[in-house]
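Preliminary data (for renewal application), alpha-D-ribofuranose complex.
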Amino acid sequence: MSLVNFGSINLDFVYRVQALVRPGETVQSLSLERFAGGKGFNQSLALARAGAEVRHVGSVGEDGRWLVEMLATEGVDIRNVEVVETPTGHAIIQVSARGENSILVHAGANRELSGSQLERACVDLGDGDWVLLQNETNAPEFVLAEASKRGFRVILNPSPLDSSLLDLPLDRVDTFLVNEVEGEALAGEADPDRVLGAMRKRFPAADIVLTRGEQGAAFSGRDGTSAYAGAESVEVIDTTGAGDTFAGFYLAALLSGANPQSALVAGCRAAAHCVSRPGAAPSIPRVSDL
Ligand code: RIB
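Predicted structure:
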């Protein structure tokens, strides 16, 4: 089985700082590096490196051609990636000495997916196909409408979560992949068990996966089943891309027939590898690294 990922492609400018900048403060960065990134890009890369077949749908500017070539080299199907006039999206990422991050995203070309491009990407999708969405492109509204017509399964990583996403028909989502911040915003609860309980009530037809960083990840199935996997203990260098790595390895495991429990373990193991290295895309493991 394969998956189609409608996702962002970004240039990540990563600034190492002692501590994340606070409002009104000016600090000197310790270093600056440029990496490939974008939640969509990272998730496609993680899926491919985990052994899944993935087609990416997205847009870059001329300055992002190398990112598309990188996806292709990794085995991602790029037939629905287009080069447009608007510059490639970018992210300004601070990483603190403790490995925490703060991310400012500028959408750029990621919000320039055209109607015809989206139609072309959906035309051959139907019952049984899996589609992955995040919220850094202009695709979610179109894709959720197509899901009702064509019957494909939507996996939503609602990141970054904003009011435009909350206004969409989220009852069409088959699986939510949320972190604690997104879970709290969707559930109106902070405690992880309550987040899962409240989301279960609000989205009874969906599977829900809650990632909790050092606390691992939990699954609540629409069929009443639940599962949990702990995080591996590693030295944290940079948490950027850990959620994307988890998503790719979790979904790749499900696509290969694993149950949610084994898929959570695969996702957590890969995310632990990711946080112990700098950058988002460069720290996504291959199966052989694990
Ligand atoms: O999840 C990490 C990603 O978020 C970064 O690569 C950045 O580009 C933003 O999209």
